[in-house]
Amino acid sequence: MDIGTRFTAFGKSVVMVLIQLGGLGVMTFSVFLFLFLGRGLGVRQRWIVTESFTATPIREIPRLIRSIFAFTFLVEGTGAVLLYLHWHGRLPAGEAVFAAVFHAIAAFCNAGFSFFETSFVAWKGSVLLNTTIMALIVVGGLGFPVIYELIGWTRNRRLHRRTAISLHSRMVLWTTAILVVGGTIVIFLLEGTGAMAALGWKERFFTALFQSVTARTAGFNTLDIPALRGATLFILVMLMFVGASPGSCGGGIKTTSVATMAAILSSKIRGRESVSIFRRTIPEETVSRALAIFILAVLVVTAGLIMLLVAEIGPGNPGRTGFLAYAFEAISAFGTVGLSMGITAGLSTAGKFVIIALMFLGRVGLLTVAYVVTRREHVTYFRYAEEKVMIG
């Protein structure tokens, strides 16, 4: 649905407020509920909350929440000013202000909503717009715990205090950089003679970079998605599946899960018993959670895709849309990205319910894995006999 033409100014304002509340609420609502409205945190709840905020000590959670609100409004305000400078003179004054505020919030909260019919396709060559939106998306997708730590690390450096960046933050930063750079290079090479063939080198670079950044969770686009090559669409699917980082506004299985999976593979290939990365050993329980999240995500997406295909392709509807389009739609929903190959509006009622369910499960379902895998363990006093199984 094109909210730019279908929604009134009031409707757009409601969407903007919901995006802001959702972006803040995902990270803070449960903490407020437990700490300020509930009876306090139990042992398991304390563990889940501190894990969600990168093992931040529970005594620092209230201060972290205040920092989240302050940092959010500071970054969104700065982004809105920069976006206004872009739209000033291109749109009426009042519309330029509203567009700047709306898109700054949507970008930082990784919502991907735009009330322009073709998103940012018309401004793919604008350095100011592209840079501002990408910066908001990346910062919003890093996760507040990482930002909180980086601010403290910078402050300590100024005071000549030696502090190390945590393993979590290093994994987030390196994985984010690899995904952004790798995605940009692949999209640039694949679409240089395709959807971006008519663009200049600068526009090609910014378009490829923008699409690589936004595909992970934000959902804005400067390219016509249905016009992309199949290989490019598959790259976008992988980026959407990965998503953002823990404690952020984005969805997906998260960068740290992917980094942990890569560390598991590397350790097994090298014949090491423990899983390590950046000269640090990852705890066994973290490895188990990463595997659980990955497997659960694959199962959820697979089940959702099957239900979507059943809903959309049947005896009375042979389906004129390719399999990749439905897979793209399902993973985009699971990763709460918002990109589409243009089939969303044409989905049946059942298909739309499947998409809604995938979005819900993709955003809040995986967060419950931490609770599930940390339930009370049953103490056993025996082990079954081992027996080898052929693998591969």
TrEMBL record:
It comes from Eiseniibacteriota bacterium. It is found in: Cell membrane. It comes from the Bacteria. One of its GO terms (biological process) is metal ion transport. InterPro entries: Cat_transpt. It is a multi-pass membrane protein. The chain crosses the membrane at residues 14-37, 64-85, 97-116, 128-151, 171-190, 227-244, 290-311, 323-347, 353-373. One of its GO terms (cellular component) is plasma membrane. GO terms for molecular function: monoatomic cation transmembrane transporter activity. Coiled coil: none annotated. The keyword Transmembrane helix applies. Keywords: Cell membrane, Ion transport, Membrane, Transmembrane, Transmembrane helix, Transport. This is Potassium transporter.
